Give the backbone structure.
Amino acid sequence: MDKFDKMSQKNPDLAPYIEQLKKAGVSDTFGTKKEVKQLPQVMRENEIISFATSGFVDGDTVLIVITNFRLFFLNNGMIFGKKFTEFPLDKITDLTYSQKLLLANVSFSSGFSRVEVKNINKKDVPILVDKIKLSILKNKSVTADINDTSIADELKKFKELLDLGAITQEEFEIQKSKLLK
């Protein structure tokens, strides 16, 4: 039994999010057990975790989560309470990272907001960056002007992403339902 299984046994509301973390291949949640436990309170309906890891923002340990709608940072501090920062995927304008010997730093910008996350596990950074870029592309595809492309064209794009393994069947169904509304 791994650490995630123990957490979901103690809190049944957490179980679906633990499954999403496992499915996303999340392994490094160092120092963010309290934040993982907060996922049922911060996740939205139909929101799916595509990746998560831990890092430091302004000296505090945070859980970094990428979903099909947004990127967010969660810090459930002991003294100062919960800190929550989110970036809607369609609003991210800049993404940069640097790698060191064992750890890496990533910066995100959205308009006038900028967050620098330090000391992320070096092996997680390429996954994190790729998942963010893919999520941004998928999100922009959904919000594209319907006049420019037909619904059938959009469905075809998502089917191609599904066939390539870039999205799951569940993500495909969500995007399909959005388009067919």
Q: What stands out?
A: The chain has seven helices and seven strands.
